[in-house]
């Protein structure tokens, strides 16, 4: 039975119930957001940091424009899957898709094409 309002008694009750112990730090919605933010930043830094090496490695066997096309397609599918998970009832309209495709082609494809061609033409050193 749950008694008292302290976190210690709640943690003990959770352990006796068999559902596990829930940390007060992670259970608080503010702290969950902080942990999620920190994990997102770590993942972003990891992906950003490995981007150059992965692109250079891929450019050894795949043409740079193909790398851009694959990245663009995978990124679009990932974003659509994320939208379906987070907002399953909302669907982008045709006008929204047209804007996203236009901005994606203009910004992402142009930037990634220049980046990929640049990485494929350079070496690790600047000699």
Question: Please, could you describe this protein's structure?
Answer:
- The chain has 127 residues and is mainly alpha-helical.
- The protein has helices at 7-17, 24-27, 29-59, 64-86, 94-120.
- It has two domains: 1-50, no CATH class; 62-127, no CATH class.
- The protein has five helices and no strands.
- Helix 4 runs antiparallel to helix 5.
- The N and C termini lie far apart (72 Å).
- Mean pLDDT is 77; it is low at 5-15.
Q: What is the tally of beta strands?
A: 0
Q: Radius of gyration, Cα only, in angstroms?
A: 23 Å
Mean pLDDT: 77
The quaternary structure here is single chain
Total discrete domains: 2
Beta-strand percent range: under 5%
Give the class from helix and strand content and strand pairing.
mainly alpha
Helix count? 5
From the N-terminal CA to the C-terminal CA, the straight-line distance is 72 Å
User: Outline, from the CA principal axes?
Assistant: flat
Helix and strand string, N-terminal first? HHHHH
Q: Poorly predicted ranges (pLDDT <50, ≥5 residues)?
A: 5-15
The main β sheet shows up as: none
What's the helical proportion of residues?
Answer: over 70%
């Amino acid at each position: 039975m749950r008694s008292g309002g302290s976190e210690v008694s709640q943690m003990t009750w959770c352990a006796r119930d068999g559902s596990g112990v829930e940390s007060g730090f992670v259970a608080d919605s503010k702290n969950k957001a902080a942990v999620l933010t920190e994990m997102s930043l770590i993942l972003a830094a990891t992906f950003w940091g490995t981007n150059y090496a992965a692109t250079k490695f891929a450019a050894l066997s795949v043409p740079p424009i193909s790398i851009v096309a694959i990245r663009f397609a995978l990124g679009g599918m990932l974003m659509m899957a994320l939208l379906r998970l987070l907002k399953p009832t909302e669907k982008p309209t045709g006008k929204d898709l047209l804007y996203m495709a236009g901005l994606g082609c203009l910004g992402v494809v142009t930037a990634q094409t220049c980046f990929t061609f640049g990485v494929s033409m350079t070496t690790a050193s600047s000699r």
